[in-house]
Amino acid sequence: MSANIEDQNDVPAVIAHGAEGVGLFRTEFLFINRESLPTEEEQYKVYREVAAALKPQPVIIRTLDLGGDKFSSHLQIAKEMNPFLGWRAIRFCLAQPDVFRAQLRAILRASAEGNVKLMYPMISGLDELNQANAHVEKCKAELRAENIPFNENLEIGAMIEIPSAALVAAALAKKVKFFSIGSNDLIQYTLAADRTNEKVAHLYEPTHPAILRLIKMTVDAAHANGIWVGVCGEIAGDPVLAPLLLGLGVDELSTAPSAIDTVKYIIRRVKHEETRKLADFALQSESASEIFARCVELARQTAPSLFENKA
Asked: Mind listing the pLDDT tens digit for each residue in 4-63?
């Protein structure tokens, strides 16, 4: 179990809840609610502080994911009709190479601590991934020329948040060391249901058969290419859904520090064979509600005290 964090102030909670490192460092929170962009040096100090505090546990830093529901006023990003489908995340970074370069250099410099990993958000296909990797290689060359230390073997991963990425996961897996499934966006993009819109909230179903098949497709493609898969969306912190994710073959769960204890509790008690049977049922089912009901049934049988306390 890893933790999702927003800045260095979350480190004490990561340690207190026994997380095995950080599976998602949301760096955009260093960019918002301020009058200017953070410099390379500012970013480096924060990334290094977190990495040093959690060594030897890994710290996975996600590159800037502005856009959608997160904006930075000083960048003057034009208002879009469909911001979740617009100029955000890796699309923004590739179009703003100076912003991207400063962050990549900061992450690379922090990687000298030895436990930093990097991942790109909202990758939709191989071209974007190749472009992003090319920027990293260029920054590496600059740092070498400047005799600035960094980890030459820095592991790079891609977030699987868009159906197209899941469908070409086999190709993406050849270019990265790990996948991190961003389930919040994967669900809303697959089901065309804005998770912030109350009118369509009932359509946002984590156990929809299409979602589970995309997750399984991603896991299978990753394992076939010798890389691991994590989930860092909200479902990773749900004790009812965690056994299903494990049954689908997910290797790592990353969630808010406060949810780690509960998820660990049920994972330690559920049997591997039970998770596999649950996943097999889910992949053969056509009903999201039936799948969810089966997940609840297994969770109640495995850890009844969780539900007694909630009641």
From this structure: 999 999 999 999 999 999 999 999 999 988 888 999 999 999 999 999 999 999 999 999
